[in-house]
Amino acid sequence: MNPQGKATNHGDKMIERYSRKEMRMIWEDRNRFQIWLKVELAVCAELAKLKKIPQKDWNVLRRSANQLLKAGGVDPKRVDHFEKKVHHDIIAFTTAVAEKVGPTSRYIHYGLTSSDVLDTAFALQLQQAGKILLDDVDSVIKTLGSLALKTKNLPTIGRSHGISAEPTSFGLKFLGFAEEWKRNKRRLKDAIENLRVGKFSGTVGVSPHWSPQVESRMLKTLGLRREWVSTQVIPRDRHAEFFSVLALCGASIERISVELRHLQRTEVSEVIEGFRKGQKGSSAMPHKRNPISAENLTGCARLLRGYAMSAFEDVALWHERDISHSSVERVIAPDATILLDYALIRLDALLKGLVVRKERVRSNLEAVGQTVYSGHYLLALVHKGVTREDAYLWVQECAIESIEKGSSFVDLLVSHPEIKKILSEKEIRKLGSLDYQLRHVSSIYSQTKQKQTGIR
Hints:
Layout: H1 21-26, H2 29-49, H3 55-70, H4 76-86, H5 89-101, H6 114-150, E1 155-160, E2 163-169, H7 170-194, E3 197-198, H8 212-220, E4 225-226, H9 237-263, E5 271-272, H10 292-313, H11 324-352, E6 355-356, H12 358-367, H13 374-383, H14 388-405, H15 409-415, H16 419-422, H17 425-431, H18 434-437, H19 441-452
Parallel strand pairs: 3-4
Antiparallel strand pairs: 1-2, 5-6
């Protein structure tokens, strides 16, 4: 509840600019109260089987509650109204339900503490959010895979420390990203599955009103497992794992974004973000086409890391429970899932609209010359019996002269007095070719595909 006494609408947390309706609705009060009522009814259904609720009363309660659910559940404004008086969200909710259901509502919340409902419902909300995120990740993986195939045979200069290194395949950038997102998908699925737990074990977790076996049956109807050993709450290491995976997804988004930002720099200019007709890049400089999506996504990743840190702070609660985690989760759960959903959709759109400037890629590769193959000559000389120190010195002499004087690196190697004694001209020219450098790229692709199908 906010300082003015109004119940907080979880869906209002993340700003509208970064929210998609499907994910936002999960955290709105209407959906939250619907889930609370379903949780309460799952308990009542089992209590009726145990004859703790008379069958006649259960028939009335079930019919009235289901009608309420079909009508959209309790009105959040009514819950707000009662919460202003009682200053307790669950009591305000049960009061609003009683107003609609009538006398049999006395069985709702029977034997439960607030966290039994809150934590179990929270688990269900996270399952809903997780499904959307997994779908988003699947789209990103598919798009990256498509880009990897389209640019597989496009040679580009590789870079380390921001400096030209050896040639590589442009497609390997995207293939590597796709593999990373497959790992993220596995991590996310595991984290979601580890949150598929609830609890109806009471105020300190000892199940004083029914057995753990009964609790398991109650939870099974909701598609959840029982938390083996709970306190008043579900242990928050489960939630910390989930938010850490969301942060890791953010880091992967940032990794792609930083690469694309670099490749869009004027001096590099190998890719361009999609630019719609009528779009403006700068308020002051009409010529600008800025990497706004990649920069926006870099910022989103920073937020996601912050949410993860907050989740780690929630793990250590006092004794059997305190509520220091509650205010944190009311903010980070909607914010982190809504933001990652937005970021994944924006990343997918960025990748789908990405323009790879193949001629610029080729010209940048040609501009660095053949010195990028220096490592091949070093190894070839060592293989022929030359000491590493001598081999390094001879190749370096040719490379420096090539860079400083603009001479052909390969020609300098061919005419070098020591190197020509060891390597033939044919060997030298073969080692200084793209075909030799990239000869195993297809194998990398094929083994990646085999791994996907379980062959490797």
